[in-house]
Amino acid sequence: MGVGMNRDVRVNTKSLLYRWGQWASRDGMSRLDYPPMSAEQMDHIKIHEGDFPTEQRVEEALTELGRFDDLALQATKLYYTEDKETGGMLSWDEVADRLKCGKKRIKAAHDFTIGFVASALRDLVSN
Length: 127
Description:
The protein is mainly alpha-helical. The protein contains seven helices and no strands.
């Protein structure tokens, strides 16, 4: 899908990832791969199944992505959910630095994520 992906699909997919990132990092934690919590903890941070169907579908796609490409998953999590102390998102350079690999590899991993998520959520990103 990579080369033939039209610009709208790419933009729509990124927009879904930004939405997921805001949802996933609410309450100061990422929900992806978070260890199981007790009912008390769940209640405390107010996760309600079904309240965020779109974000939950993105999360499922990302969990699936992690089975194929862990670097793509880690880069995506850092880029879309991590905030600097100064506010704002990490740059691709900072993501590459944290994952101890080159920026080119990180950008390629992100392109793979975009293609994978676009394919998994075709109904949400196609016009």
